[in-house]
Amino acid sequence: MGVAQKRKQSVAEQDQSVEAPVATVPRGRPAGDHQAKRAELLEAAASVIAAEGYAKATMRRVADHAGYTTGAVTYYFANKEDLVLALVVSRFDRYDAMIAAIRDTADLRELLARWFHLGQEAKFWPLMPDLLTSARSEPRIAELIAGRYAKFRADYAEVLAAAQASGVVRDDIPAHILSDQLSAMGDGWALLYPIEPERFTSARASALIEATLALISPR
Amino acid sequence: MGVAQKRKQSVAEQDQSVEAPVATVPRGRPAGDHQAKRAELLEAAASVIAAEGYAKATMRRVADHAGYTTGAVTYYFANKEDLVLALVVSRFDRYDAMIAAIRDTADLRELLARWFHLGQEAKFWPLMPDLLTSARSEPRIAELIAGRYAKFRADYAEVLAAAQASGVVRDDIPAHILSDQLSAMGDGWALLYPIEPERFTSARASALIEATLALISPR
Amino acid sequence: MGVAQKRKQSVAEQDQSVEAPVATVPRGRPAGDHQAKRAELLEAAASVIAAEGYAKATMRRVADHAGYTTGAVTYYFANKEDLVLALVVSRFDRYDAMIAAIRDTADLRELLARWFHLGQEAKFWPLMPDLLTSARSEPRIAELIAGRYAKFRADYAEVLAAAQASGVVRDDIPAHILSDQLSAMGDGWALLYPIEPERFTSARASALIEATLALISPR
Amino acid sequence: MGVAQKRKQSVAEQDQSVEAPVATVPRGRPAGDHQAKRAELLEAAASVIAAEGYAKATMRRVADHAGYTTGAVTYYFANKEDLVLALVVSRFDRYDAMIAAIRDTADLRELLARWFHLGQEAKFWPLMPDLLTSARSEPRIAELIAGRYAKFRADYAEVLAAAQASGVVRDDIPAHILSDQLSAMGDGWALLYPIEPERFTSARASALIEATLALISPR
DNA sequence: AATGAATGAGGTTTCATTCAT
DNA sequence: TATGAATGAAACCTCATTCAT
């Protein structure tokens, strides 16, 4: 999104310079890339939460991590809730992209592999459970998560239903229940990951993927 | 945490070892029932966390809920970490008891039913994920949980192995992996429970139990 | 109020020590005098506002002035609004007492003299307009002031009506209008006092009192 | 505040002295109308203070209200104090104009009517007390107000003296004292206006005007 | 002439913890 | 055993101000 935005702005500048080369020079400091800066701060927040947990993820630490002052963070996000809300959105967007990427093939092994990859490389595992837990005391976050998560499970169920139709997934359990079970399993692993990281070496991750595929394969 | 706590704890230990192993019946002055008071405060803490989340569970709120003042809580627990540590112990004790209760029969339906019951009636679902998440910033809590959880999974695996031996559970997946998968699934449900309580009506809970039994039943 | 409270508490202690001299010694630190401490902080707040204005009257400065830390202030007052609310109450209580003191005699010269005295010696002038202005951004303070002020004007009107009946105050203007005019005049003086203190020397205060009495004396 | 402001101000002065004494008609590039822009921002500031009180009147809100950004405000006013100073000047200019307009006739009913009108229609009532109170923590504002207010009272006294001379105002109270009393009364009403707006309906305003005229009419 | 990013000081509030009693 | 006063650190947030552009 950062990139698209940047391109759009430079197009706007071109328009101006073509039409009125002298007097219409854009006034003031160039707008910078607001969205890109927000994304940067979001990544900083994600890193801090992943590294130290939600409880230690203060505005100050996020700012420090991004190399700014607290004021800069509140300049881009009206308050902490806004920051977390945006972070939740950005993470679920990635989940949605993950599902979308395999929707056509309904390749569940690939989906699980991507999910394990996001979890570890993209720091989703030490992040999402903290985000879900933070929803306990923040109704708006809870509401957002509830909506996005329901959509995620529905998409997941759709993929599973397709897999059932093509005979690669057992069909004695409804797709929406399977989706529920599998996503819960994933959340459970993510929840324990920071406490027992040694359980999730890539060798063991492969074993878990295979065992999970075995669980849902047709009898 | 240092001196004061040490004194308090050794007194408690003395009481237990000298007077009575369980010591719940007030003898002489009822005032001396240190363990009972601790348990009372622990339940208050559990209720507060279950009701409002870990973030809102301050020493003051715990004290209020138990009908005491802040000072009383810090009298019985050297500090907040101690309180949470004790709470974690008390909850895993219940998990262990749950496993122990069905170890002989290896009745998995009963085990799942008990687990769903603990989760909802005994407020474990809105509690355990908060406790696990709190471990993110408290190494001693993380360590304690890691140990107790590993033991729990091992016990669970033992039960599953027995069930495999008697042919009621599929044996194409090792028991310790099944244990891993099932406990993760449970944690995942618990994690979402406060956000989407409507997903866990007792009717739907039954459906989930049956679907989970189907998942692990032999082919 | 502080005194009355203190007396009450010591009576309670006496009761206890008489009935059960040994075992019922009041536990814990003696309650201190919560109300007295609140009053002390209120006076500190009044002094700070009087000296530096509402804008500079931060919780920190109030605490410093009283010789405590910020935490102590928020221990006695849940938040700043609460502190200001209590301050408003305490000041209007004094206004009410002022009116009550001359209600029987309806001696307006005495009333004006008391009012000038409160204004200067008891720091009411540099205080009340700041309090009234602070109500602009705090609805609950505005509501409280509106109510108390209306009562004050009504009491004032009652005194004026009595004075009209006894022929010492002109009766061509209704008492409630006179009350309105006189209290507004007082507020106006108070508003300017911090800006032009030299206008309110005691000589000039006397002149203002006499001129005000002349204004309302019967024709 | 130092250099930048100095440069700006001297430019403004040059414009005035060289080109035209009043200089409101845009000549050549309309961009140069420094004074008009300042006036525009001043009105925005007045509106914000009138609507939400001085405490909420931040540079940002003033800018927003005028349709600019914060930077624009600090471009036209070296700092916030400067802005408020200019605002005070502009409001007292209107008071002076109000007095000047009735100086010849010494028509006090008209003066009071105009004052009530300014207070309500031109938002002076919710504005002036906030300005006066803000002077508490800003010596330069206090100084400015003290000077302008003294001049206002002197002009008012002059009008009252004329009225006394022509027999329409009582002369048992010196004109400068009457001026003091009447202006204080007005300030007092203004101070309460935001708290009790219902006391100042136009019907009641008329009653107050008549009662005030009665107060000062000859015996 | 004006923008908007960024700073940094300072405000209110929360809270675990200490401690005299 | 238990209270409740008090501390002090740290959190979130606001805002005037600066400055590159």
Essential attributes:
homotetramer, 219 residues, mainly alpha, Tetracycline Repressor, domain 2, 10 helices, elongated, disordered N terminus, DNA-binding
List the helices and strands and how they pair.
The structure is a homotetramer of 219-residue chains.
Chain A: H1 2-19, H2 34-52, H3 59-66, H4 70-76, H5 80-102, H6 108-121, H7 128-134, H8 139-165, H9 175-192, H10 202-216
Chain A binds a DNA duplex (21 and 21 nucleotides) through residues 26-32, 34, 37, 58-60, 68-72, 74-76, 78-80.
Short description:
Four copies of one chain form a homotetramer. Chain A has 219 residues and is mainly α.
Give a description of the structure.
Chain A is mainly α and 219 residues long. Chain A has one domain: Tetracycline Repressor, domain 2. In chain A, 71% of the residues lie in helices and 0% in strands. Chain A is built from 10 helices and no strands. In chain A, helix 5 runs parallel beside helix 8 (139-165). At the A-B interface, helix 7, helix 8, helix 9 and helix 10 of A face helix 7, helix 8, helix 9 and helix 10 of B. Chain A binds a DNA duplex (21 and 21 nucleotides) through helix 4.
